[in-house]
């Protein structure tokens, strides 16, 4: 367990994002009235913070409808931003839950190389272990030996079994073995790593389709979840990755990582607003405890740089 409480890590993680929002808003607060020009500037500042045009427009409308008799303060705007972001994030905040039946539940994890997929798989496994579920990993990214090796290291570190195969082997064979082993041993969750070769979209699509066919023969409901891992530092590019992976992989939910390394964390809100896909968890660091189920209000307040409710 990390020494630092989660809320502090969350706020630390979003600090660059909320500072950027503050920088973008600075200078707007000397004005006595909230006129059209100031509203326009605030809207632009929000767009520049990666929150997306639709979100920026919502905040603008809300600010325009408020009466600021005692003047406009930065804290006041941050509060309104936090409230509006929470409204956008709340409907998509969905923990990754395990149904009672059938077991194993199969979670395919997809995303481009370097997005934090391997680390996220380990973190998700850790979250499931905390809930007393049995977890099995499957190293389905057989394209690169390094990917297999890295997942093995994580499996050992967190103490979960793993199915691997040779580099260049058939990922669907590994998935098949994974389901067989999980079924025979009564393991609750099978988490499958997949290749992230977007540069070969057709190849990746075929590979994922084959994994699905194999899974479907063993358990018609599988995969129960297809989780796309997105790297927040890629900003708006993360949005186009959603588009592509929806098409190639039938994504059912998102995990956004590396929110600690970027001022572009606002893209989390843009993703929620634009795609409405469930957001299961967010990553704010490299440690095993740095991924937590997604709490919309906490995240909204951290992005907006407003004090957390528990601190108010
Ligand atoms: N700061 C930070 N780093 C992260 C986070 N998640 C993952 N990382 C780091 O990002 C790098 C890439 O993560 P991996 O898990 O290896 O990513 P991957 O998508 O499996 O990448 P490949 O192995 O290249 O396919 C590693 O150095 C991780 O430690 C996060 O939430 N915050």
TrEMBL record:
How is it placed in the membrane, per its record?
Peripheral membrane protein
Question: Which top EC class applies here?
Answer: hydrolase
Provide the binding site for GTP: 111-118, 193-197, 257-260
Does this UniProt record's set of keywords contain Cytoplasm?
A: yes
Chief subcellular location? membrane
Checking CDD domains in the record gives: FtsY (cd17874)
Q: What does this protein do?
A: Involved in targeting and insertion of nascent membrane proteins into the cytoplasmic membrane. Acts as a receptor for the complex formed by the signal recognition particle (SRP) and the ribosome-nascent chain (RNC). Interaction with SRP-RNC leads to the transfer of the RNC complex to the Sec translocase for insertion into the membrane, the hydrolysis of GTP by both Ffh and FtsY, and the dissociation of the SRP-FtsY complex into the individual components.
Stated name of the protein: Signal recognition particle receptor FtsY
